[in-house]
Amino acid sequence: MHIEDLRDYCLSKPYVNEELPFGPDTLVFKVGGKVFALLGIDQLGDDLRINVKCDPERAIALRSEFADTVFPGYHMNKKHWNTMHCNRQLSDSEIQKLIDHSYDLIFEALPKAVKAALLG
């Protein structure tokens, strides 16, 4: 999966904002002000990585199943976040499903008032 495809997919989710709070090398995707994905834009080609939130049990299972591809989240809470190498074992659709899972976890945890403001 290419960096442009990852970026476009994250931005296709409803109510998403893209920011650069950590400098020009890390795209951060938020919904309702909360991060659901971080993409290192200095990592091109085979080393392209994305951090996504994950259910803790599923995170452990993914790390076991894809040991060369999915790792505890880099600079994140290792229990709840995974770092995925995007050009190794995972297909594009699997990566998209994990981005969806992260987005859903964050969106569902938003306060009611924030959800109401987003949903209009």
Automatic annotation (TrEMBL):
GO molecular function ontology, one term from the record: DNA binding
Among the Pfam families in the record, one is YjbR
Q: Which UniProt keywords apply?
A: DNA-binding
Note the InterPro entries from the entry: YjbR, YjbR-like_sf, YjbR/MT2646/Rv2570-like
Show the stretches that span the lipid bilayer. none
Listed PANTHER family:
CYTOPLASMIC PROTEIN, CYTOPLASMIC PROTEIN-RELATED
Q: What is this protein called?
A: Predicted DNA-binding protein, MmcQ/YjbR family
Name the source organism.
Sphingobacterium psychroaquaticum
